[in-house]
Amino acid sequence: MRKLLFLLLFFACTQAFAQTEITWKTLENVRFSRKYFEEIDEYLYYPHFGKAVQKLEGQVVLIEGYMLPLDPEEDIFILSRNPFAACYFCGASGPESIIELMLNPDHPPFEMDQVLMMKGILRLNQDDYNHCNYILEAAEVWTGDTQTQ
To answer: Which helix (H) or strand (E) holds 78?
Structure first.
């Protein structure tokens, strides 16, 4: 009985700290079509997420990228595959190359194009055109130290 309890506790603890490191290549498992949104009278890119990305929905992930503090006062932060001068907003890449960050309130200040490893819960967004297709909830800078994360 004691052995079973130990195994259950061990499994629960390892799952609590489990995260998957992903790359920007992983997030390319999406295709886009044009979809009309009547509320704004516009056609926008509509994502069709591939199976590999769908499996990551709701999972804790780690990803490295360039920090884009677009409007720090309004808590609008983006993690990008590319630096600001070559990011999605400049037309140099697609919507799969950025992740909207929902940072914890006690986050540190960030510099434009600061390279960081971020950790958070990956959410896939298809229908809310006010947000990016990829969102990282409870996002925080990952240092690799499980004691402080």
So the answer is: strand 76-80
